[in-house]
Design brief:
The protein has 17 helices and 11 strands. By secondary structure, it is of the alpha/beta class. Helix 9 crosses helix 13 (250-258). The radius of gyration is 21 Å and the shape is globular.
Length: 350
């Protein structure tokens, strides 16, 4: 059986959908599994043992109608038996339909029902620690008689990459044999970014309890926000922060994160990648993001997350900037201090 799985755009979504491949290989060990993604997400699926081939929908095919048509014919030429469309937007539905596969599966949409053989209604409530992010993807396998199973996304880092990461840390005067914490300093946008003064308080609290080396994860255009956090920290905490240490290459960042004792900070792609690397996470959710959708494999020790709704029920979660700002203002570090201290005591080396 030859299967194409489609999951475009965001790296976190691409990573999460890799669980489909593990479930497919378990049920159909002789199957040939291809993954259609964008170039920016290749690094999180590299070396994945359950994926046989990466199919890139590159920028040229996305921008040019002529190149996109050529891409469609290249997909049809593969003669897939099954297409599983985890993205489920018109563009991806067109790809799945044009593939000629006898079985095409995606989430329910009016347009998808017209073109696909199976459309799946997402469950409204989570029923496992995997959360709806995993549960919904496993639902896509129901037409293939694959039952739900808790599967965690995995990122594979080679020994060579780890050794290179250790050497790079040492060159930057960071000691891999001592505790290192990666801070998810900035969210994907302002509505998903914890207040800089509050995050500085979190870092001060960490340094009050543990002697650690702190690295920041941010994009180059976000450095101003990272510096705000740094400048809000006390002098003792500043001594522990390597504010200029930055990895632009995603594989290098992943290898560095794998060497960290924990990742703490804003919910987003970095959090999901850390979990896929089996690195403990303490996650600060934006008021605009339903925690129950993305707090995958929450426990009381290695994966802990906090949300304003844990402490104050907000009747309406909105993406309105002013309301989100007010919600963040109420989401003060003292609310989750005990959870944070418990987390660092359990996961950070002494």
């Amino acid at each position: 059986m030859k299967v194409l799985v489609i999951q475009k755009k965001r790296i976190g979504d691409v990573l999460t959908s890799t669980i489909i491949f593990e479930a497919l290989k378990e049920k159909f060990p002789e199957s040939e599994l291809h993954y259609l993604i964008y170039e920016n997400a290749v690094d999180v699926v590299k070396n994945n043992p359950f994926i046989d081939k990466i199919v890139l929908l590159d920028n040229k095919a996305r921008k040019s109608k002529f190149e996109f048509v050529r891409f469609l014919f290249s997909i049809r030429k593969e003669k897939y038996d099954v297409v599983i469309d985890a993205y489920g937007k018109p563009n991806s539905v067109l790809i799945g339909w044009f593939s000629g596969a006898k079985k095409t599966i995606t989430f329910y949409k009016n347009y998808a029902k017209l073109l696909y053989t199976d459309t799946i209604y997402r469950t409204e409530k989570s029923f496992s620690s995997a959360t709806r992010a995993i549960e919904h993807r496993m639902q896509l396998l129901e037409p293939l008689e694959i039952r739900f199973k808790e599967i965690a996304p995995k990122i594979i880092i080679t020994n060579e990459e780890l050794e290179a990461a250790k050497a790079d840390l040492i060159r930057s005067n960071i000691n891999p044999s001592k505790p290192i914490i990666m801070i998810s300093a900035v969210g994907s946008n302002t509505l998903k970014t914890y207040r800089t003064d509050y995050l500085a308080e979190v870092l001060n609290e960490i340094c009050n309890h543990k002697e650690v080396q702190i690295l920041f994860n941010y994009l180059p255009f976000q450095k101003e926000i990272a510096l705000e956090i740094y400048n809000n920290c006390n002098e003792n905490t500043k001594k522990s922060i390597f504010i200029d240490y930055y990895k632009e290459n995603l594989r290098e960042f992943l290898a560095i994160t794998k060497l960290c004792d924990a990742l703490i900070g804003n919910e987003g792609g970095a959090t999901n990648m850390a979990k896929a690397l089996s690195v403990p996470t303490f996650t600060l959710f934006s008021p605009t993001v339903p925690k129950e959708d993305w707090n995958m494999f929450e426990n009381d020790t290695t994966n802990i997350s906090v949300h304003i709704n844990d402490y104050e029920i907000i009747k309406k979660i909105t993406f309105d900037e002013e309301e989100t700002t007010q919600s963040y203002l109420k989401f003060k570090p003292h609310l989750f201090k005990d959870k944070l201290i418990k987390f660092i005591n359990y996961n950070i080396r002494s």
